[in-house]
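Apologies for my clumsy wording, but are you able to produce some protein sequence, whichever is easiest, and the tokens describing how it folds?
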Amino acid sequence: MNLSDITTIKNVLSRHGFHFSKSLGQNFLINPEVCPRMAAECGAGKGVGVLEVGPGIGVLTAELAKLADKVVSVELDQRLLPVLGETLSDFPNVKVINDDVLKIDLQKLIAEEFPGMDVVVCANLPYYITSPVIMRLLEERLPVSAITVMVQKEAADRLCAVPGSRACGAVSAAVSYFAEPQILFGVERASFHPQPNVDSAVIRLNIRKEPAIQIQSEKNFFALVKAAFGQRRKTVLNSVTAGLSYSKEQVAQALERAGIQPNARAEQLTMEQLAAFSNELFSE
């Protein structure tokens, strides 16, 4: 079954009475080159298990199943289960679980479904849940080596932005803490049905064995990062003072001890500077 052919897709969906859901951000891939490349570059192979999020009609799932020992796909939309039952019928190494990836116990799922395997994550993520899903996958410290996802182009640039660069935001710093991000390739909007209003990109997050920096408290560090980037037009002195329960004098002193100019903005700070600032501020 050619799942990149629009006529085939429409026939399959029609047989099952399926209609696209705007609220679930459903745009299915029809570019035949994208999914094979994603599967090849995500780390799928012999001895590898793949956790997929949101399989849609199974285009990417089928390509992953050709390479990996096992694929487990978590799909929220129950209406897609019979569709996937048909499109993935030739792949006995695929299991579809009807659940919410933001609520399911991922540690337990990986332990039960992929014993003795190296595990990677691969997904074509709906735009509206890109950051929550990625941050959950990272913060859970799952036993996975890489997370490869297709996201909106703007989100890809933000997620992969280097701390200290203009494009960096709070999520960029969080991603850099847990992983080494890279943009693999772009995907034009015409690659989807229905066609979205934006282009996409495939990114890969290579999980670090140890965090990028040494900090005294992750909770405090991420609270500071959120505050620092919360008001981007302000200096980090003013944004952190406004976002946390510290006086301007306390924040200024912490910046000085960390060797950071008080008029610096959050996007100008490297990971090392953010770490030093956090350690100094919360040591008081």
User: Anything to note?
Assistant: The CA atoms of residues 33 and 46 lie 22 Å apart. Strands lie at 28-29, 48-53, 70-75, 94-98, 118-124, 146-152, 179-187, 192-193, 200-207.
